User: What shape does this take?
Amino acid sequence: MKNVDARGCALSGATPAAAESLERALAALLAWRSGAEAHVAAALEASPRLVMAHVLQGWMLACGRDPQRVAAVRKVLARASALPANERERAHLAALAAVRDDDYDLAKALLGTLLRTHPRDPLALHAAHSFDYITGDTTRLRDRVAALLPSWTHDLPGYHALLAMHAFGLEECGEHARAERAAQAALAMNPLDARAHHVLAHVYEMTGRAAEGGRWLTTHRATWSADSMVATHCWWHLSLFHLASGQADRALALYDERIRAGGSVEVADLIDASALLWRVQLQGGETGARWRELAAAWAVHIDDRFCSFSDLHAMLAFVGAEEWECAKRLERSLASSQALATRHGETTRQLGLPACRALVAFGRGDDGLAVSLLAAMSPQARRLGGSHAQRDVLQLTLQRAVERLRGTQRTGRIEFATT
Assistant: This one.
């Protein structure tokens, strides 16, 4: 039996073969590479009683915005909770149970406590980092990782991922030079770390270096575009660099060839698609019939009542496509959800519903209302989750609405580039 992992964390139910497959799964997950699911399956086939294989499986489902995947955590918990587990593993299961119960604050607190006792648990950090991002907890996104770095050494498997996570936290806190150095250090240790490539895309975006960012992503395309968990999102970043360089046609070509080529129904991919088309349209680009297909893909999520960040991007698609009935249905669903004593209810009251109403107002040409709603929510917008680069869609819309208002005062006309 192999009862510890490569960083000295105890494993319950491990065999040598199962532990090896688990380590491969963890390595893939930490570097945002494909294949973690297959390695987990191999670990569980070798030892169905390997608790941390179930735990890893659970976090792969929980760390996202798809309510169906998060709901599947229940089955994983049911299997894992019946197995003998050590204190660390039980802490993981308790945090997963908090996610199952929609208590993200409790999940983050439990993971924080776990990491203070077991600072070399990279899966706990991966999960905590994911939820800091999802909940818009920007300062903790940086500081949580920084507090753990002294407990690690460069030779421990997964250290590159800590550097990449730290780099992202630094970038989101505006420390762009430090973020760039940390991401480059991560890549020096593991050139296949797609997480670090992603951080550099954000650094170039937030420092206004579109040409340099485009060159970086293009040069390293073979690394992040194949067998990577972040391929579509990096294509999105490359599209933004094209937009910033005045090349809307190239951005739309990537939309067609890379972002929507397969008609993905993954929530993360739908978010990227909405965010890109909206930016193209704000710049006066011709989006053609693209909005209609995207709005249809979003329609099944109208009643998710799960994630305000997703609601916002669904509304972008409905307004862009002028699918006003879908927009009304989403607004009614959110108006109902805001009364609930849930995580989604709270973010809907504070941010989701005002943001969606602002987008509808903007799409219908009521720029005064759009400006009023967007300006009022700006100080809290980070609580929607996501990154600065992603939330910029609200600031860009606010700026465009202000420009149109000023144009209205001069010409009496308001125009919105519709399909």
